[in-house]
Amino acid sequence: MIKKNLHEFKEFIARGNVIDLAVGVIIGGAFSSIVTSLVNNILTPLLGLALGGKDFSNLAITFKDTRIEYGAFIQSIIDFLIIAACIFVLIKIINKLTHIHHKEEEKKPTPKAPDIVLLEEIRDLLKDKASKEK
Question: What percent of the chain stands above pLDDT 90?
Fold first, then answer.
């Protein structure tokens, strides 16, 4: 029973979809850290300058003993929007490339079967013969 389950698990892991998903998660994590760095080190300071030199990431409100860091929340929203925009652009590019590939496949004529070619030749010969007899 354990050997059968272990064998099924190995087959599951060896499938392309699981491996593709794992690669996607790893690349997504790396991409997320790049976007976070972009937001923290470039966009947030620029936005702070636009707001009059305020440090955007440290914006917070304090009530009694509770600190509400809404600047970090806004920064997370900016992270999300940038990641969503990048994914949108990537999907648009991939769809365009895929669409171009499909157009190229549609342009290729499908080869005719030998019997169809033979029948077309007979038809053409009969047309020529009929036109010569007139």
Answer: 4
